[in-house]
Amino acid sequence: MGEGRGGGDAEDASLVKKEPSAGVRDRARTLRHQMTEAERRLWQILRLRQTEGHRFRRQVPIGPFIADFVCHEARLIVELDGGQHDPSSEAEASRTRFLEGEGYRVLRFWNNEVLENAEGVRSAIAENLHPVTPTLSLPHRGGGPEATPEDVADLQVENRRLREELREALARQAAISEIVQIINSSPGNLAPVFDTMLERAMRLCEADFGIMLTLDGAGPRIVAERGVPQALTDFVAQHPPDIGPDTFFGRAVLGRSVLHTPDMRQEAAYRSGQPLTLIAVDLAGVRALLMAPLLKDGGVLGVFAIFRREVRSFTDKEIGLLQNFAAQAVIAMENARLLIETREALEQQTATAEVLQVINSSPGDLVPVFDAILEKAHALCEAAFGTLMIRDGQRFYAAVLRGVPPPFEEVLRRGFEPYPCTPLSRLLSG
Q1: Domain residue limits at 213
Q2: Is 12 a member of any domain?
Q3: CA 16 to CA 75: how far, in whole Å?
Q4: N or C terminus of the chain with fewer C-beta within 10 Å?
Q5: DSSP codes joined into one string, 194-262
Q6: Among 209, 180, 174, residue whose Cα is nearest residue 192
Q7: Domain with 172 in it: what CATH number?
Q8: What integer pLDDT is reported at residue 135 of this predicted model?
Q9: 231 and 295 both lie in a single domain
Q10: Contacts of 373 by beta carbon, 8 Å cutoff, 6+ apart
Q11: Residue 356 included in any domain
């Protein structure tokens, strides 16, 4: 084939018996530019001659048909069966009979076999390759084995595509690496992590704006946004999205899966007049939407969403990238949670040790002990004020106080009997 080493996609003139039918050459050239993912995967193996050094060509016209991959030397055709071929149909059986009548053996694989077991497919092809003595045949009009200008053009197109894919892959890897560095350098501080994720996702996925929301006991909360129109920001802040089947946010959360639409105007939520969808489409100009939930242990911690103002689908690679960012966001949130828990546990242990030191240094004197206990509880629990009271019969007295307003302080120091149905009376009654 045109992009294999040492040659093009043009047919080997000494091996093909019949000239292609009219128009088949143009169709073959078109198919080379529209290869499926499975065909591209297999072509990468064949063009590098990973099958015992044999040379294959792709989309080769043979009579009225176009064979997927052909090794003229071994008289072997490799066909991939997916949406374009039904190996059980009479038309496909007739195709196979014709190709075998031309002296070829036909080896078939399903697309998923190439995508999921490329090495197994390569081995099977290699086992079916063996030298075949070519028969004398009428050469094709216009050519021998030398590459044609069309083959060179095909090679240039494929090289440009490969360079672009490499550039995109390197950009994605660099973005993920940078986010990991920010997570490590900002322990417990999620704001710069979320902001960087949003910026990279928008740039790499060619989105116009984006938003990240987290879920807690109070409901959805905006934790990061970029380029979001003010009308949409204000509406979401005042009317957090419902976690129900009528909103895109709710569908992503309840379904625990990626939500993607190339045109929100075609969605039922817009046609039914769902308020948030109307604001997003009519005021913010949203057309395409991609939303990925932040998943952890079967639950949803939030949602990562990016938007376009044009009707254009996000690609599989862009969807995968946003899912990757969502997974990194969950890692950052979990790291922050563990750091906070560790810090709190350390503070509690330190406070307990300091109280024990006061107890040991003040034998028989309870006031400094009570004061130390109250001071530590006050700080660790972020309380506005507090008191430590002791009970004498049915009355309670404040042994120590901290930050209590003066009128209340006087009552606590004088002592009191708790009224029925108050927290203190319920505490006494168990």
Answers
A1: 162-338
A2: no
A3: 10
A4: C
A5: HHHHHHHHHHHTT-SEEEEEEEETTEEEEEEEES--HHHHHHHHHSPPPSSTTSHHHHHHHHTS-EEES
A6: 180
A7: 3.30.450.40
A8: 45
A9: yes
A10: 355, 388
A11: no
Buried b (16+ CB within 10 A) or exposed e, 143-175: eebebeebbeebbeebeeeeeeeeeeeeebeeb
Residue type, 38: A
Which of 92, 116, 147 is a domain's end point? 147
Within-domain flag for 128? yes
Determine if the pTM surpasses 0.85.
no
Q: What three-state secondary structure class fits 164?
A: helix
Q: How far is CA 165 from CA 44, 117, 169, in A?
A: 14, 22, 6
Q: What is the pLDDT of residue 124?
A: 83
Low-confidence ranges of the chain (pLDDT < 70): 1-22, 49-52, 82-89, 130-156, 159-160, 162-176, 179, 183-184, 186-188, 430
Largest separation between any pair of C-alpha atoms in the chain: 118
Is there a single domain that holds both residue 166 and residue 139?
no
Residues 32 and 110 in one domain: yes
Neighbours of 259 (CB within 10 A): 18
The span from the CA of 302 to the CA of 295, in Å, is 8
- Burial letters 62-87, b for 16+ CB under 10 A, else e: bbebbbbbbbbbbbbbbbbbeeebee
Q: Distance between CA 1 and CA 393 in Å, rounded? A: 99
Helices (H) and strands (E) in the chain, counts: 15, 11
The pLDDT, as a whole number, for residue 258 is: 92
| CA contacts within 13 A on the Cβ side of 22 | 0
Provide the residue type at 37 as one letter: E
Burial (CB count <10 Å: 0-12, 13-18, 19+), residue 97? exposed
Helix axes of 118-127 and 37-47: crossing angle, nearest 10 degrees: 50
Give pLDDT, residue 307: 95
Structure confidence at residue 19 (pLDDT): 56
Give how many domains the chain has, as a whole number.
3
Position 131 in a domain: yes
Contacts of 214 (CB under 8 A, 6+ apart): 220, 221, 223, 294, 301, 302, 333
Length of the chain in residues, anyone?
Answer: 430
* Type of residue numbered 193: V
**270-288 pLDDT tens trace:** 999 999 899 999 989 999 9
CA distance 75 to 365: 101
d(C-alpha 70, C-alpha 318), whole Å: 34
Amino acid present at 309: R
Tokens encoding 201: 């996702």
For residue 77, the cross-strand partners are 70, 106
